[in-house]
TrEMBL record:
<keyword id="KW-0560">Oxidoreductase</keyword>
<dbReference type="InterPro" id="IPR001017">
    <property type="entry name" value="DH_E1"/>
</dbReference>
<keyword id="KW-0630">Potassium</keyword>
<dbReference type="GO" id="GO:0003863">
    <property type="term" value="F:branched-chain 2-oxo acid dehydrogenase activity"/>
</dbReference>
<keyword id="KW-0809">Transit peptide</keyword>
<protein>
    <recommendedName>
        <fullName>3-methyl-2-oxobutanoate dehydrogenase (2-methylpropanoyl-transferring)</fullName>
        <ecNumber>1.2.4.4</ecNumber>
    </recommendedName>
</protein>
<dbReference type="InterPro" id="IPR029061">
    <property type="entry name" value="THDP-binding"/>
</dbReference>
<keyword id="KW-0479">Metal-binding</keyword>
<comment type="subunit">
    <text>Heterotetramer of alpha and beta chains.</text>
</comment>
<dbReference type="InterPro" id="IPR050771">
    <property type="entry name" value="Alpha-ketoacid_DH_E1_comp"/>
</dbReference>
<dbReference type="GO" id="GO:0009083">
    <property type="term" value="P:branched-chain amino acid catabolic process"/>
</dbReference>
<keyword id="KW-0496">Mitochondrion</keyword>
<dbReference type="GO" id="GO:0046872">
    <property type="term" value="F:metal ion binding"/>
</dbReference>
<dbReference type="GO" id="GO:0005759">
    <property type="term" value="C:mitochondrial matrix"/>
</dbReference>
<comment type="similarity">
    <text>Belongs to the BCKDHA family.</text>
</comment>
<feature type="domain" description="Dehydrogenase E1 component">
    <location>
        <begin position="142"/>
        <end position="436"/>
    </location>
</feature>
<dbReference type="Pfam" id="PF00676">
    <property type="entry name" value="E1_dh"/>
</dbReference>
Length: 477
């Protein structure tokens, strides 16, 4: 407790300092646009930059370095109009003009991409090589995710499970990001990333058990469907309140750092999640504590019925990383190779340099928000169709593996038929399996069950005795 208190005091202190530092970083960035900045890097800069530029994703770091160097070489004019002040965080230039930072940098942050719309690698693109074995597992898992969505969605429509939520359109984000991590990296998901769990080896039976809330579900049927979690696979249980997982990931990353583990924490969230206070607190905390965490934002255009234009007026989420002093990248979320490369590089930097990294993946939520939603009520059908067909990440990636000679139509039909069979079997087994006994509803939270819960249990048992016909017969009392 005392250590926790000291740490939180330290974090608080650093947090207060970083408040003013942010402004300095922003002004340093703005001054990099100033005409007196040398247009190219000098030779010592070059050496520094080439260290970073081995990886094009580090362009941002090099640019930042350049603006910092430029700041150092500002000529100090003695008439007092152009002086520099030493201030915590670096030198600050005085200017006589009344000038506000613009609300936007004019040009939008560009988006890292390797595969064009036709699944061809863009010439000159630099990316992390993927072996045939990994490439094929990535494809197979993306297809499995698609089929799982179809079958579970239908099961909900048939009234066999109470709720479901698909990942359609975000298969590349799910699978390619997972492929770039290792099992020691701790995942803090939102709810649209079951593919990460699938990649790690959660079985189709385990998915089905959770959705049916049977006695083999690790949550013992106490959560809605799709709230998966696995201790074995380092995947924290999905929790519905938006963005609560983001600061959790930072805390876990801090602990990985203290224990000197070669691993990072990874947290996923949507564009909607970035409007929560938890997101901002987490980014600032991660930046000042320098912890190995990857913030993965799935910018899919919609937060239920709220379009991104009503969610934020910044250039998406990526720019916010920079505002908090976090190295960030925007990536095409429907390009599996780009997502893989970006997360691979992010993981390397996060662990080696003990720092947070933000990845913003541009994508689209092709399905309705969940089975409780009809998205045609608030968005045009042709918008959905465009993303579902022309921008589908799975068929784009399939074209790439086919071009490599790794895939063909026969392999495709065999895969789809096998996965479908396995899933239908898993659903049948999960549905027939006993439900957890009612008494389990009251366990696992308190060491000693408190009297008010005991009382609720007694009232519930009495109610069931009075109305046995209204109580589901498959749940043991
Ligand atoms: C704190 C909180 N506020 C509101 C909700 C209701 N809610 C559930 S999902 C959702 C939209 C989240 O959108 P986003 O984070 O962009 O993720 P997406 O569903 O697009 O993947 C909202 C508002 C919630 N679960 N938690
Ligand atoms: K949450």
């Amino acid at each position: 407790m005392a250590i926790w208190f000291l740490r939180s005091r330290l974090a608080h202190h650093l947090g207060q300092r970083i408040g003013s530092l942010d402004a300095l970083k922003l002004s340093s960035w703005a001054s990099s646009l100033h005409p007196w900045i040398p247009p190219s890097l000098d030779s010592s800069d070059d050496r520094y930059a080439s260290k970073f530029l081995r990886n094009p994703m580090d362009l941002y770091a090099a640019r930042r370095f350049r603006s910092a160097k430029a700041q150092e070489s500002v000529p100090v004019v003695t008439d007092g109009s152009n002086q520099v002040m030493d201030f915590p965080g670096g030198k600050v230039m005085f200017v006589p003009e009344l000038r506000f930072l613009a609300e936007s940098p004019g040009e939008r942050i560009s988006c890292y991409r390797i595969l064009d719309d036709d699944g061809k690698t863009i010439s000159g693109s630099s990316f992390q090589e993927v072996s045939k074995e990994i490439a094929l597992k990535m494809y197979s898992d993306m297809v499995t995710l698609q089929i799982m969505d179809t079958i579970f969605y239908e099961a909900q429509r048939q009234g066999r499970i109470s709720f479901y939520l698909t990942t359609i359109g975000e298969e590349a984000i799910n699978i390619a990001s997972a492929a770039a991590l290792t099992i020691d990296d701790i995942v803090f998901p939102q709810y649209r990333e079951p593919g990460v769990l699938l990649w790690r080896g959660f079985t189709l039976q385990e998915f089905a058990n959770q959705c049916f809330g049977n006695k083999l579900d690790y949550g013992k049927g106490r959560q809605m469907p799709i709230h998966y979690g696995s201790n074995r696979l380092n995947y924290f249980t999905v929790s519905s309140p938006i963005a609560t997982q983001v600061p959790h990931a930072v805390g876990a990353a801090y602990s990985l750092k203290m224990d000197k583990k070669h691993a990072c924490a990874v947290t996923y969230f949507g564009d909607g999640g970035t409007s929560e206070g938890d997101f901002h607190a987490a980014l600032n905390f991660a930046a000042v504590m320098e912890v190995p965490v990857i913030f993965f934002c799935r910018n899919n255009g919609w937060a239920i019925s709220t379009p991104t234009a009503e969610q934020f007026r910044s250039d998406g989420a990526v720019i916010r990383g920079q505002a908090y002093g976090i190295r960030s990248i925007r990536v095409d979320g429907n390009d599996a190779l780009a997502v893989y490369s970006a997360v691979h590089a992010a993981r390397e930097m996060a662990i080696r340099e003990s720092r947070p990294i933000l990845v913003e993946a541009l994508t689209y939520r092709v399905g309705h928000h969940s089975t409780s939603d009809d998205s045609t009520k608030y968005r045009p059908v042709d918008e959905i169709e465009h993303w579902r067909t022309a921008r589908d990440p799975v068929s784009r990636y399939r074209k790439w593996i086919e071009r490599n000679g790794w895939w063909c139509d026969d392999a495709e039909s065999e895969l789809r038929s096998n996965v479908r069979k396995e899933l239908l079997h898993a659903v049948q087994v999960a549905e027939r399996m006993d439900k957890p006994p009612l008494a389990e509803l009251f366990t696992d939270v308190y060491d000693q069950v408190p009297s008010n819960l005991r009382e609720q249990e007694r009232l519930l048992t009495e109610l069931i005795k009075q109305h046995p016909g209204d109580y589901p017969p498959e749940v043991p009392v």
